[in-house]
Every structure is written in C-alpha cells, then in structure tokens.
Amino acid sequence: MSSNPAPSGAPLRLEAVRKVYRSGDSEIVAVDHATLTVADGEIVALLGPSGSGKTTLLSIAGGLLTSTEGRVVVGGQDITDRSPRELTEFRRTTVGFVFQSVNLVPFLTAEENLLVVAELSGRSGMSRRDARQRAKELLDELGLGHRAGNLPSQLSGGERQRVAIGRALFNRPALVLFDEPTSALDTKIGEQVMELIQNEMRSRGTAAVIVTHDTRMTHYADRTVRIVDGVLSDDPVAAGHP
Amino acid sequence: MFLALTEMRRAKVRFGLLSGAVGLLVFLILFQQALSTGLINQFIGALRNQSADVLVFNAQARKNLEGSIVLPAQQAAVAQVPGVAEATPLGEGTFTVLAGVDGAAEEQDAVIFGYQLDGPGAPTTLVEGRLPEATGEAVASSRNADEGFGIGDTVTVVPNAGGAEVVFTVVGLAEEINYSVSPTLFTDFAGFEAAKRAVNPDATAVLPSVMAVRVADGADPEEVAAAITAAVEGTEALTRRQAVDGSPGVSAVRQSFSVVLLLFYLVVPLVTGLFFLIVTFQKAGALTLLRAIGSPAGLLVRSLLLQVVVVVLTGSVLAVGLFWLASRGGGGLDISVESGPVLFTVTLVLVLALLTSLAAVRRVLRIDPIAATTGAGVQVG
C-alpha cells in the first residue's frame, strides 16, 4: 500500500481498492487492497512488470473499470458506484487518457483529434470557436502547430503521442492517466515524450499517473509506486527527479 | 455529425463507391418498376384512366373485357342498385382501321371504346385537344399520335362485306389509355355501335361490353360493386382498381416483375448493411478509443446511422438522375415515371438499409472501452 498526505479534493484517492476476476470457482486478484493518493500537480510513476495489475489499477482510476471493493475518488468525485453511463461522462469531463497503442482516430487530423473532445461533449462543451482556439494553443505548445492538418498516418510515433497528450489535456482534466506512453517509441523519442509530459503537467499543475515497466522513465516522476501481483508499495529507490 | 461527416469526407472513394453501387441498384429497381407500370399501362391503361368508379362485367367473362357483354335486363337492373348514381354502356372492340400520316394510311389494328358522352367511362388523362362532343369524334392514345392518330387525323374502320365505312376524327389525345398494346380510341357509344355494325352488318343489336357506373356521392365503390354483383344475376361488378388488377395477364406480369424486384430489395440493404459491418470492424480501434475517452455509445450509433442515410440518399439521388435520363432517352423502351413509386422505393430502401445496419450497430454497442488499454477492438461473437 502507498499513501501520501493530501487534501480530500486530491486529484486521485484510491482507498483499499480490490479488483477480482472470477472464472467459475476460481478467483484472480488483479489489484489487492491498493491505497494511493496523488496530490495536486504530482506526477506518480506506477512501475511494475507485465501482469502486475498496473493497467487494471489505472483503468479503475480512469473509470474504465469498476473495482470489486474499496473506494475511488477522482477530483473530489466518488466514482465507486457509478453506472456505466455516468462513468462515460466522467471519462469525458474529468480525466485525460494517453494509451499505449491506439491513441488517435485515424480519419481525423491532429487538430480534429483534439476537437473531438469538444464534439463529444456536445452542447454542454465549449463553443466551436473556443475549441479551435484551445486546440491551436495546445498544438503550438506541443510543437505541432505546423502538423495540425496532418492525419495520424502522416505523423511520426513521437508526434502521435504528443497529439494524444494534447487531446488528454484538452478538457483541463483533474488527472491525466498515461498507460505505457513510451513503449512503442525508441529510447530517445521516449525520453523526449516523457520530458514533454513532465513539462506539460508541471506547467499546468495537473496531476498524472504514468504506468510503465521501464525503470529508465521513472525519474521523470515525483514519486514512484511499485505494483507486484496487485499489491502497491512505495519504491524509494526508483523515485527521483531528473 | 462531426465524426460521421468527417470520416466520409476523408474516405470519399470508399463511401462514393458504395453510394454508386446503391445508386445503380436503386436505379434498377426504379427502372424495373417503371417498365412494369409502362407495360401494364399499355395493356390496360384504358381501364385505369377512365372515369367510371365501377365496371360491371358479365360474370361468365371472368373479368375479361373482350369476352363480356351486358344484357339489356342486366343494364336496367344495375341502374336500380342502391349507391349507383349513373350506369351507362361502355363498349370495347378491336377493329381493323386505316390510319397513317401524310396520306399513307395503312391497315392496322386499333381498339375502340364507346361510352355515353355525358356519362362515366370518359378518358381522364387528356393532354391535348378536347373530349368528343359528337358522333364521329374521338380521343386517341397520345402514344400513337405520330402513327396517324394525331389531332385532326381521320381513322377509318375497315368494313366487312355489306358494312358501311365509319370514320372518326381525332379531336383530343390522352395519356396512358392504350388497351392490349394497340392504338386506342375513345368515342361515343353510337360511334362504337356504328363500328360494330361495319364489321358485322347482320348484327341485330350491339350490346355494351360492360356497364360504366358512377357511384353516388359518399358511397364506397367497393361496397357498391359488391351490391351490384349480389343484386344483378350473372354480373360481376369491379371497382376500377379491381378491374385493372384482375385483367388477364396483368397479375402474371406483376408477379414476374415482383420476383425480380424482391431480389433487388433484398440486395440493396444487404450490400449496405454488410459494408457498414465491415467498416465497423475496420475502425474498431478508433471506436474503442472514442468510447474510452468518453464518447456515449449512442453518439457513435447515431454517426453510423447518419452515414447509412447519407449513402442511401446520395445513391438515390444518383438513381433518380439516371432514371430521369433513361426516361428522356427512351430508347424505344416504355418507361413510365411516377413520383409516388420513386418516393416509395427510396423510403423502403432507406428503411431496409437502416434495418440491415443494425448488425453494425450491435457491434458498436458491444464495444468495451477497457479494450483501449489492451489495443483490442470490437469483441467478436
């Protein structure tokens, strides 16, 4: 288990979260009584080997999965018992995601991949003009202003991840969840992307959880939490700053 | 809307080809329907486009105009049936006539209908000229205007030995009034009677083929027809529509075309549904991502259905354009363009395409957003 003192409105608070998959009479415990709090602006690396439960935990934090036991509070909202429909809205409005592989809609340009977030919100979202302005600002900040009209197939792997970061930040979420954001990239590009994530999160004061199995990437985080067989533990050795 | 239309804009060739395929298939449906309607109109247009609400046949004629005669006693009895406002004789016969243009008249077959000028049975689709006002005047089928049946032309019934020549002057043209695929004339009953006597000088009496009935205001033609059949022995009264549908050959033509049309009606939505199912599988990753970042499933379903509507409507516009060109070109084919069937076909194809797209909708609804973390797409099965 891992915890940090943080206010109740912390971007992420997991309390004794347990996720069990049942198959017939057998049970597989993917996450076992995990407790984790991420403070405002804090970047936490969730480090663990394949099959350790790190993506499951990230999915629970992001409302993609529901926990079997425990409590999940994101940005002050308790999402523990929310319905699938409510979780869909939660994902749209409160968290940002950057996934490992499928990250962009292939038939939308870089700019449109950001604008789609506003489109999904419909009339309750920002105006079209504001959305375009926001997309432009984000792409400029991410060094992709000149690539706004390009389709994902015309972008490099690093550029695609940067667009995905822009999309994740578009709605000014309380928390951004990164699932192995550098696993499909070579080391150099991976480090550039991590540096970008660190800068973008810090400059906005946005909290982030980065799932990774690569210890070389953990120094971009403020804190590293290890997960093995679904059990969380602080990892003071891996934690550090660049 | 944004997602649906942007995707279509980016994949113009893919969606364009589908719209083209749908368009060609819808065109074939419209063409078949028009061909069928055109053919049927050539057979029984005269019955369809005359003013009588009910036609009273001799029961033994089995709805065949050529084999029907109504006896004087039956004529009188029909007029007495409640709901009958007017019942007048309508005669029909095929005659050898002399007709032609530029003085080159030649013998050909023509059908002559004789009706009481102020009664039911008059042609209802006059496009040029006027209805006959006296014996010796006739309205001709507009399709044959260039074959010696134009306004001002004279058509002469070729008499048999002992018979007198009967001449009709064409004073009007009406659309779709052919009968038995022959040039057709509508004249007064006296003219028809004269034509009959020309070919059969020994005839003691010329009887009408059917009685043309106008029903009283507010009366239901179907009920009146049933009442006549029940009240007047040896008759079979039919509404105009029943007479058209029951004509020998019409139902056979309809049935043959129906089988072909049914196949087309199955193929169009199946092609559309299959296309969208394949597309849904192909973009499973994108759909999963969208679900993961908070897109409601309903929004993705609406996008899909919007694409179906756009494809079918685009295809239909293309089909109607081709159909219009085909009807203008003609090419010797008898194509009848009617807005009702076109609208019906497009609507039916659209509804069927939406129904077959439900398979793709089901796939969209089965997307589990958690698959975004594994890189998997739509679950199969």
Descriptive overview:
The complex is a heterodimer of chains A (242) and B (381). Chain A has a 6-stranded mixed sheet with strand order 6-7-8-3-9-10, with helices on both faces. Chain A is of the alpha/beta class and 242 residues long. Chain A folds into 2 domains: 1-94 and 174-242, Rossmann fold, CATH 3.40.50.300; 105-172, no CATH class. The longest helix of chain A is centred in the last third of the chain and has 18 residues, at 187-204. Chain A is globular. Chain A has helices spanning 54-61, 84-93, 110-121, 128-141, 157-169, 187-204, and strands at residues 12-23, 26-38, 43-47, 69-74, 77-78, 95-98, 175-179, 207-212, 223-228, 231-234. Chain A is built from 6 helices and 10 strands. Mean pLDDT of chain A is 87; it is low at 1-7 and 238-242. Chain B is of the alpha+beta class. Chain B folds into 2 domains: 2-43 and 251-373, no CATH class; 47-242, no CATH class. In chain B, 46% of the residues are buried. Chain B has a 6-stranded mixed beta barrel with strand order 2-3-8-5-7-6. Chain B has helices at 2-10, 12-48, 72-80, 189-199, 221-231, 240-246, 250-282, 284-292, 297-329, 339-356, 358-365, and strands at residues 54-58, 84-99, 106-115, 126-129, 137-141, 154-157, 166-174, 184-188, 210-215, 235-239. Chain B contains 11 helices and 10 strands. Chain B is elongated and about 100 Å long. The interface between A and B is medium-sized, with 33 and 26 residues.
